C-alpha cells in the first residue's frame, strides 16, 4: 500500500471522506451481519448514518481542477460519481425516519440501498486506474514519484 497517496497527496476533504466512508463501510457491514433490533444495532446504525452524511458532505468538496468560494455552489469540478451525494443525503435520513416510524421494510430498503449504492458501487469505481484508491493499493514506486512531481508542480 502507498499511504502517501492519502497522507501527502490528498487534501483534508479527501482524507475526511476516506476516514468517514471507511467507518461507514465497517459499521454497515456489521449491520448486515449481526442481529437486528438490538441496542448494538441502534448504536451501529447511528454511527453508520452520521458517517454517511459526513462522507457525503466531504465528497461535495472533492473536485477536480481549481474551485473556490462561491464556485462550490456550482457543479464545477464534479464528476458523475458525485450523483451519490444527493442520493445518500436523501436515502439515509429517509431510512432513519422510517425506523423511527416503525416502518422496518422501508428502513431496511433505504439503508441497504445506501450501502450498496453509495459504498459498494461507488467504491468499486474508486479503484479505476488513476483514482486514489487504485493508487493506494496498486501504484508502483515510479507512479508515486510521478504523482509527487505533479503535486510539486501543480499542487494537489
From TrEMBL:
InterPro entries, A to Z: DUF2306_membrane (IPR018750)
Keywords: Membrane, Transmembrane, Transmembrane helix
One Pfam family per UniProt: DUF2306
Record has Transmembrane helix as a keyword: yes
Annotated transmembrane regions: 16-35, 47-65, 77-99, 111-128
Name listed for the protein in its UniProt record: DUF2306 domain-containing protein
Species per Swiss-Prot/TrEMBL record: Parvularcula maris
